């Protein structure tokens, strides 16, 4: 190997991507050539410079939710696909027949509302799991309610109430924008010991009194309630009684 | 497999790579909005082709699709940023020999040591996409050459020459900028 060969190969050499024979030839040359040793050293420094200096962009917290919603929509129109999606196509004809029968009964609104609620429950669970899986729980990390609350303004069509609940044992750790029910919603993130609690806040009325306010799905406990024209969903892997305490803390009047 | 369990399986495999996908897309698209669109597009495409994933390196498979979506996005909206592959490889092979910039003397080294993160980021962003992507995949994603070859759909030999060329362009850019700053400042 001469100096030109070494110069050409030094980038791959520094990356450890040359084969053994080429490495041996290159190192034989380096022993007797100070210029090339300097050149290789320089390549190494340049690589370090990039690794240390170049920015690593982390996905924004809401992206996982956005993708999840897009995946759900891609499977069929999420607004009309029932929760049990398995084999729905072959059943479509039968379902439309059943639907026609239901339509003629007074129970229509109840079934539709229940379906909507059930789907929403599943979406809340999915969003929570997605955020955990992708390790992106938080867009804005802060325990300060006066930092988190204004962060949401301009991003949502509601101003979510944000309170730190450290005194009740549930410190606020931050918030993120998420997607539930085909719209951006606020998700506040709290901690209790090692457990993470998501508090989703949706505008308006999500079919009150139809689905149970307390339930569990896939090992997660859920609580749902309404307040001030907004619907709240709390979800966590906490014990159900601890999640009850969390709900009480959130709903307690601010002092 | 039901639709739902297929989706969950895909999400379990694909979501842990979301940061990697976003980083690559962000470097190729150079703004948050287009990067998000490209990543969402990639995840939908990956989900649709999930059945054709043969096992093996899922990250490389995912990043290959992300890269594809980025190039499609660029071709749609900013075609001028795409240089033809032939031009790139001619540039890498001929034009200027690799030797001059890799051969450095001590004053030049001292100069390069003053390069800060802001300059590094700026210069990487200015590289043509085929050079930018191999550098980002190597230095930020720690990809082996074989993986880069798979992701960028080029032979390993081309990975080698593009990476060497990318580093040389970077080095030259730094020299130029730092010398100019000296000229202005002193």
Topology readout:
The complex is a heterodimer of chains A (255) and B (186).
Chain A: H1 3-14, H2 20-31, H3 34-53, H4 61-74, H5 88-103, H6 108-133, E1 140-141, H7 145-152, E2 172-180, E3 183-192, E4 195-203, E5 214-217, E6 220-227, E7 230-236, H8 240-251
Antiparallel strand pairs in A: 1-2, 2-3, 3-4, 4-7, 5-6, 6-7
Helix pairs in contact in A: 1-2, 1-3, 4-6
Chain B: H1 3-14, H2 18-29, H3 32-48, H4 58-77, H5 85-93, H6 99-102, H7 106-112, H8 117-126, H9 129-139, H10 145-152, H11 156-185
Average per-residue pLDDT of chain B, rounded, comes to 84
Tertiary shape of chain A: elongated
CATH topology title of the largest domain in chain B? Arc Repressor Mutant, subunit A
Largest sheet of chain B: none
Structural class of chain B: mainly alpha
Q: From the structure provided, what is the oligomeric state, counting identical versus distinct chains?
A: heterodimer
Secondary-structure class of chain A: alpha+beta
**SS elements, strand count of chain B:** 0
CATH fourth-tier homologous superfamily of the largest domain in chain B: Winged helix-like DNA-binding domain superfamily/Winged helix DNA-binding domain
Distance between the termini of chain B: 70 Å
Radius of gyration of chain B: 19 Å
Which CATH class of the largest domain in chain B applies here?
A: Mainly Alpha
CATH topology annotation of the largest domain in chain A = Phosphorylase Kinase, domain 1
Any low-confidence stretches of chain B, pLDDT <50, length ≥5? Answer: 97-102
Strand order of the largest sheet of chain A: 1-2-3-4-7-6-5
The SSE string of chain A, one letter per element, is HHHHHHEHEEEEEEH
SS summary, helix count of chain A: 8
The mean pLDDT of chain A is: 82
């Amino acid at each position: 190997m001469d100096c030109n060969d070494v110069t050409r190969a030094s980038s791959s050499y520094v990356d450890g991507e040359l084969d053994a024979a080429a490495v041996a030839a290159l190192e034989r040359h380096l022993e007797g050539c100070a210029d090339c040793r300097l050149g290789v050293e320089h390549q190494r420094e340049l690589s370090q410079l990039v690794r240390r200096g170049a920015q690593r962009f982390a996905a924004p917290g809401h992206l996982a939710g956005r993708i999840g919603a897009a995946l759900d929509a891609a499977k069929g129109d999420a607004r009309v696909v029932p929760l049990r999606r398995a084999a729905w196509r072959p059943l479509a004809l039968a379902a439309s027949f059943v639907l026609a029968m239901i339509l003629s009964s007074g129970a229509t609104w109840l079934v539709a509302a229940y379906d909507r609620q059930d789907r929403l429950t599943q979406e809340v669970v999915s969003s929570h799991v997605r955020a955990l899986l992708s390790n992106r729980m938080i867009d804005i990390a802060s325990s300060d309610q006066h930092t988190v609350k204004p962060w949401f303004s301009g991003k949502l069509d509601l101003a979510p109430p944000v309170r730190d609940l450290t005194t009740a044992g549930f410190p606020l750790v931050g918030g993120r924008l998420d997607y539930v029910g085909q719209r951006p919603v606020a998700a506040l993130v709290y901690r209790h010991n090692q457990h993470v609690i998501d508090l989703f806040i949706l505008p308006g009325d999500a079919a009150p009194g139809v689905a149970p306010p307390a339930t569990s799905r896939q090992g997660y406990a859920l609580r749902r309630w309404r307040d001030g024209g907004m619907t709240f969903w709390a979800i966590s892997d906490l014990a159900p009684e601890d999640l009850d305490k969390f709900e009480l803390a959130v709903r307690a009047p601010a002092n | 497999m039901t639709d739902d369990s297929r989706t969950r399986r895909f999400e379990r495999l694909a979501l842990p790579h979301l940061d990697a996908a976003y980083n690559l897309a962000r470097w190729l698209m150079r703004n948050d909005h287009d990067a998000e669109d490209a990543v969402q597009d990639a995840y939908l495409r990956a989900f649709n082709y999930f059945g054709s994933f043969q096992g093996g390196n899922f990250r490389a498979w995912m990043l290959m699709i992300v890269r594809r979506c980025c190039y499609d996005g660029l071709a749609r909206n900013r075609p001028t940023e795409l240089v033809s592959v032939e031009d790139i490889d001619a540039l890498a092979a001929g034009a200027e020999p690799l030797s001059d910039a890799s051969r450095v003397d001590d004053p030049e080294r001292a100069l390069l040591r003053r390069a800060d993160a802001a300059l590094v980021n700026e210069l990487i962003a200015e590289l043509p996409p085929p050079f930018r992507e191999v550098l980002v995949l190597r230095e930020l994603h720690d990809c082996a050459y074989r993986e880069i070859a798979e992701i960028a759909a080029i032979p390993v030999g081309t990975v080698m020459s593009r990476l060497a060329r990318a580093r040389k362009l970077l080095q030259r850019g730094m020299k130029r900028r730092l010398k100019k700053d000296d000229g202005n400042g002193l």
